[in-house]
Amino acid sequence: LLALTFSWGVEFSQLYHASWLDAVRTTLPGRLVLGTTFNWPDLPAYAVGVMLGALAEWRWRTAA
User: Fold this and answer.
1) What's the burial of 4, exposed, middle or buried (CB within 10 Å: 0-12/13-18/19+)?
2) What global pTM score does this model have?
């Protein structure tokens, strides 16, 4: 849940365009961490990725 909240938070933050934040996004670390453009299809993709990761972790923990 924390991973999904974080990834969706980063995605929704791309809708906010303050000048200082856009300046951070022009740097390579800023682009990698904050992204540049909001894209609706990313939201379900993050959800699927988090669910697959949680399922993999659950299977790994219960197999031991």
Assistant:
1) middle
2) 0.80
